[in-house]
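Forwarding the complex inputs:
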Amino acid sequence: MSTGVESWSAESFAEMSAMSPFVGSEVILTAVVAVVWIVWQIWQINAENARYDEQEAKL
Amino acid sequence: MGYDMTMEISALNEIFVEFYYWITVPLMFLIHVGFCLYEVSISRAKNHMHTLMKNAMLIPVVTITFFLFGFWIWFAGQGPFGDFAGGTTGLPWDATMGANVKDHIMGVFWAAFLLFSWTAASIVSGAVIERIRTGAFLILAVLVGSVTWMIDAAWGWSPSGWMVTDWGYHDAYASGVIHGICGGAALGILTVLGPRIGKFAPDGTPRDIPPNNPWFAVIGLFIIYTGFWGFYAACNLPIGNVNGVWTATTIYGTPTTLSTITFNFLMSLAGGMLAGYFMSKGDSFWTFSGGLGGIIAASAGNDLYHPLQAFLIGIAGVCIAYKLHFWVERKFKIDDAVGAVAVHGYAGSFGVIVCGFMLWGYPAVLDGSATINPLGQIGGAIMMFFVLGFIPTFIVAKILNAMGILRIPHKVELAGLDYVEEQTRAADSQAIVDAELAEAK
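Prediction (whole assembly, two chains):
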């Protein structure tokens, strides 16, 4: 079982390019991270709005 | 057993280039430290933590968007409508965008560009303190840091960018491509956002809202000067063969030297500080901002200017920027809390335009197929400040304003943006004191 590189031998190293695990999953990772970013941005705006609403009510 | 000397030297050269760029990254990190320090110092005590967090959070947001699409724009967008000649270069799934034994430089190059992106967003951040919502600012930070400045860099800060090849645009250390566009972007937001409460008297006379800590604000600017060295170094390619001569080059591949930019950085800084001191009659904030403005004004041509030319351009740029700042403030009721539009936008645009006259006829690219000229530079200054700077942020700020998420609510702005945290902290502290008193009994 290996998630990527299996050997640092001269032959393997000469043919190697990407060294990170799960090569080929980059497009899926990009989609996941894009969703994380957008969801975080929406959550931040909602949280900030709620905070100001609460603060305004107290003032 | 013999060594292949050519391979050894090539490897050393590659490692030198990697290390050169890598060193610029932590140096440029200091720009952000300086921006945070001086923004917080200028804000009033009731707004300190909001000011800090607004600026600090652009780091993760711009970083992730820059990885997702910002860096790709530079490779893909060098024609006026994008020629996509770069293929997947710069996209997150490209083989060079990660651990790759066949590529040693992309991550370092990416980081150098990314730190420019942080700076771009941070320039805008200072102008809008004490009344913009963090969420709105972060959307605008992504727009400037990962989109518009990357479009302008693709067009005007690359040897194959269409503004360079068609107009002869030249901007070696980013007078326009960073500072001009960010000044314009800040002005676009300020126009929609409006001034801080109390900034203008009922008759429209501007009031001075003094920095909470002028001493720390100046230290912040000092730290930005330090980081600016990294910015200058990162704008160069450290070693290249220009028609048989080994030399450093600009990002356009045209020759310059570290000696030249060291002379000119310091001389334009000196000119700007003298001018800032003279114009403000010794005000510390404007004197130090003047130093920054002096460098920015000379940056477009600091790859080739004589040091005394850089000095005089620094003086002229700061005098113009200072006068324009207060004229725009009075005339249009624009409250630019840190003078960012002036120091970056006006001084940068002036620097782009003056470069067209100073370097008129110089080759804009190595093969001489385009030459630097005043019209190309004037068009470039308009493109940077207005088309890619002012217009996009003005439109997005208008949308955010219509959605009611641009400006802090009136009551909250009056009470202070840290009101909740301060109340909570005071209550927590009191609870501890009460508990200690109870324990003592």
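Chain A has a mean pLDDT of 93.
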